[in-house]
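Request: Give me one sample?
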Amino acid sequence: MLALFGTGAVLMRGAGCTINDMWDQDYDKKVTRTANRPIAAGDISTFQSFVFLGGQLTLALGVLLCLNYYSIALGAASLLLVITYPLMKRITYWPQLALGFTFNWGALLGWSAIKGSCDPYVCLPLYFSGIMWTLIYDTIYAHQGVDSPRVGPLPLPSLGKKQDDRQSWVLRGPSSRKAPSTLRIPRERTVPVQSALPLPELKDKRDDALVGVKSTALRFRENTKQWLSGFSVAMLSALSLVGVNTAQTLPYYTALAAVGAHLTHQIFTLDIHRPEDCWNKFASNRTIGLIVFLGIVLGNLWKEKKTNETKKNTDSRIEN
């Protein structure tokens, strides 16, 4: 079952990435860090991406059909989220929340695949904790493309070819085949380049604003650490509730303590103005996933051992 879900997770997350790149190909061309994605760069046509997506979804369907009917229906319901979540960044500053609803659907599906249906006392707090975790790591990821306050506050930019009496910076697009775009900034609000970040980093931090992409990073800005701390508390509280409702044991709670320490260090040392640090902190969340997984496995083994010991003691008393 673990191998089945691992395969399904790779296929559906891959399908989500393909759909995201298909929706965002015009946006990705204008953003430095995404300009080299295959569809945006023109290495793969839209038709070829549809064929590839069809293959991913077909294989994922094969995995889903190995489960019970309840789980098949539940898994099929997630397809709407997979298709629509890439659009959320156009209409709300909380696209990471939509991503959380999508990426953590497996918390519901995994339980139903084993038990035959969802237990709300376990599945809902587990699902909620996953959503909180997604808000943490994807907000950190999104800060790679947020305007830095060290550059100074800027209005939403306007793009155009015409010059006027306002001082302008001309920023090259990600592809040499594209004409340079003009970022027009009023003279009184222009920040000298010498006092700002290096031009490539400055451009990367403004790309999201240029194309109108929204994110929790743009919403939180300098309050990011406070928000991430709140999400961490909510995540750990929900995981603790899961432990109580499933009669978890010491290894599980030890793992939660380790996760709490990891999150505390991650958030305390985070520098939202350094893209490389944001990437390192984002990538370190793999460790959190591994810790939680080991905590669940070891906690269940410990619980099974205690159950067997209790059963043996009971049997011995009956025999005596």
User: Anything to note?
Assistant: Residues 147-205 have pLDDT under 50 and may be disordered. The beta strands are 159-160, 168-171, 181-184.
